[in-house]
Automatic annotation (TrEMBL), chains A, B:
<dbReference type="InterPro" id="IPR010982">
    <property type="entry name" value="Lambda_DNA-bd_dom_sf"/>
</dbReference>
<dbReference type="InterPro" id="IPR000843">
    <property type="entry name" value="HTH_LacI"/>
</dbReference>
<keyword id="KW-0804">Transcription</keyword>
<protein>
    <recommendedName>
        <fullName>Catabolite control protein A</fullName>
    </recommendedName>
</protein>
<dbReference type="InterPro" id="IPR028082">
    <property type="entry name" value="Peripla_BP_I"/>
</dbReference>
<keyword id="KW-0805">Transcription regulation</keyword>
<dbReference type="Pfam" id="PF00532">
    <property type="entry name" value="Peripla_BP_1"/>
</dbReference>
<dbReference type="Pfam" id="PF00356">
    <property type="entry name" value="LacI"/>
</dbReference>
<dbReference type="InterPro" id="IPR001761">
    <property type="entry name" value="Peripla_BP/Lac1_sug-bd_dom"/>
</dbReference>
<keyword id="KW-0238">DNA-binding</keyword>
<dbReference type="GO" id="GO:0000976">
    <property type="term" value="F:transcription cis-regulatory region binding"/>
</dbReference>
<dbReference type="GO" id="GO:0003700">
    <property type="term" value="F:DNA-binding transcription factor activity"/>
</dbReference>
<keyword id="KW-0678">Repressor</keyword>
<feature type="domain" description="HTH lacI-type">
    <location>
        <begin position="2"/>
        <end position="56"/>
    </location>
</feature>
Length: 324, 324
DNA sequence: TTGAAAGCGCTAACAT
DNA sequence: ATGTTAGCGCTTTCAA
């Protein structure tokens, strides 16, 4: 691999001049520039990014930390982030945290040691303090880690209300909710949204809210229990698409039909929701747009060396399909 | 951020000594070692990875290049790779190539510039020459890019034969195939496997092989056409799970039932295949294991500085579910 | 057993 | 307009 010295030698100038044309900084005569460019071509020279990083304390690399890339919400997000960042000249490091504090910590340390320029993170376990002491631009996805920390979130409560209202409009009289983890902000918001729409109904019971943990197995079991206890239920709002798919399976297992006997609405709009039978009606988040926005914000922050204090709350959209 | 100089100063030794204890290389008196370790603790010193890379020409980073992380096959692979590599002290850079030669090229250049230590790649467009001139350990997934290049592949033909034989055992008399792209090796192998089992049957027709392109929309249309042309078809082997899901949808659209009227077997064993109704019978690849193996092989290669000339051909497994 | 110093490839003062 | 040089933080020879 040719180095800047080789280029300088071949062009008959000093390394400083080469550096100047490389970075288009300072004065360089047209003649020298030509010679340097020629030498660069001849040698197929590519600047050494590591040497640059050492000097600049920047690596043109950002970290993307998600709980688990296998969770179907994240591939699309990762794709959006990577697309956008690649366009802007950045490289993406993938981290699966499993929401494990120790793993998170070691990823953070690795990032500092490698001069990673910034971090896009979706986590419920990363505390505000640890983020603070980690002096690096951060954008948080799907959750406000700390006041004043840039975040991309969606209208969770509003979306939940849309979902439940939609079930009502469709003539459903007993609407249950499969909720997500108690510790997760968006699960709380979505549950609140549900409550606001049907919590005051005369038929409403606390036991209409079952715990699905955002996962399929738990949701299947929860739904079966729910429907056995309350056979009158004719509509379900599941807090995410995975839970909704679990609910569909449970309904089928009990010999009932979706949507005839029980109509189901999910939340997220992951690709999976189109692959099921029946296809899932869902509250779609603009996942790709979220990733794109996060990436752009982060780069802004990196360039300005100052943290924008913004929260982007993106809108959600009801996609009606066969499950309702 | 404390540097090695700070540590040396605080410990009252030279930076060389600090480096020695850091890397556990060369002679260090017990006393000096203690002092250095204490200083490291006091200062919460972490070695600067970039400076190390500059010297070592290694970055403890590897690239993972996939066509598209949104393709449901790859998240699990990425997870396996990342888990394994993180365990071994490596960081993973994610690249979505879209099988686009230009994108691939610029990723490769970025990797050279950043002293990336190796590459795990799944691509049908990366040519043998480009890989050769890219002097860096590479493991190829799901495809042999060049003779002698380490690859992880699966028993595609054998799996296809298993799938089709299984349909026969289940009493299916007219078995069709939804094939993948003509340019993709594993699609060719799977199609061959299909042919070997039923190509000699008296009822076999060339038009029983439809083109699904490994994608859902195309497979839906192909299946609809197929079943309209040949209503006698009672079994379908789809070359991947996405196609199989498309086939299920198509069968439903035509008012027929899976598996009563048409039994369907897929290939891949992606998580998605469990989420459908009916759940998909499929030939499962050991996806996680493939990623793990690839990562371990790559690290071996990096450490030994020499390329092992091995091809791992992993076995596949029939998972019987509701679609048959 | 330890330290001084060169060097990895680059950028940016500073001089000229 | 250009070159010389120090320095980014580390590792490793070489000498002591």
């Amino acid at each position: 691999m040719a180095s800047i010295k080789d280029v300088a030698g071949r062009a008959g100038v000093s390394v400083a001049t080469v550096s100047r044309v490389l970075n288009d900084k300072g004065y360089v005569s047209e003649e020298s520039r030509k010679k340097v460019q020629q030498a660069i071509k001849d040698l197929n020279y590519k600047p050494n990014a590591v040497a640059r990083s050492l000097f600049n304390k920047q690596s043109k690399t950002i970290g993307l930390m998600v709980p688990d890339i296998m969770n179907p919400f994240f591939p699309e997000l990762a794709r959006a982030v990577e697309d956008t960042l690649a366009e802007l000249g950045y490289t993406v490091i993938l981290c699966n945290s499993d929401e494990d504090t120790d793993k998170e910590q070691s990823y953070l340390e690795m990032m500092m040691q490698k001069y990673v320029d910034g971090l896009i993170v979706s986590s419920n376990t990363l505390s505000a303090e640890r983020v603070k002491e980690f002096k690096m631009p951060i954008v948080s996805m799907d959750r406000e880690i700390a006041k004043g920390l840039p975040s991309i979130i969606v209208e969770n409560k509003k979306g939940a209300k849309m979902a439940v209202s939609f079930l009502k409009e469709k003539g459903r009289k007993r609407i249950a909710h499969i909720r997500g983890p108690h510790s997760v902000g968006n699960a709380i918001d979505r549950c609140e949204g549900y409550r606001e729409v049907v919590g005051g109904e005369p038929w409403f019971k606390e036991s209409y809210i079952a715990y699905g943990n955002y996962d399929m197995k738990t949701s299947i079991n929860a739904t079966i229990k729910l429907l056995k206890l309350h056979p009158e239920i004719d509509g379900i709002f599941a807090a995410n698409d995975i839970s909704a798919i679990g609910a569909i399976k449970a309904v089928h297992k009990l010999g009932k039909k979706v949507p005839e006997d029980v109509a189901i609405v999910g939340f997220d709009g992951i690709t999976l929701s189109e692959a099921t039978t029946p296809e899932l009606t869902t509250i779609a988040q603009p996942i790709y747009e979220m990733g794109e926005k996060a990436a752009k914000m982060l780069v802004e922050m990196i360039k300005q060396q100052q943290v924008e204090q913004t929260i982007y709350r993106l809108d959600v959209q009801l996609i009606e399909r066969q499950s309702t």
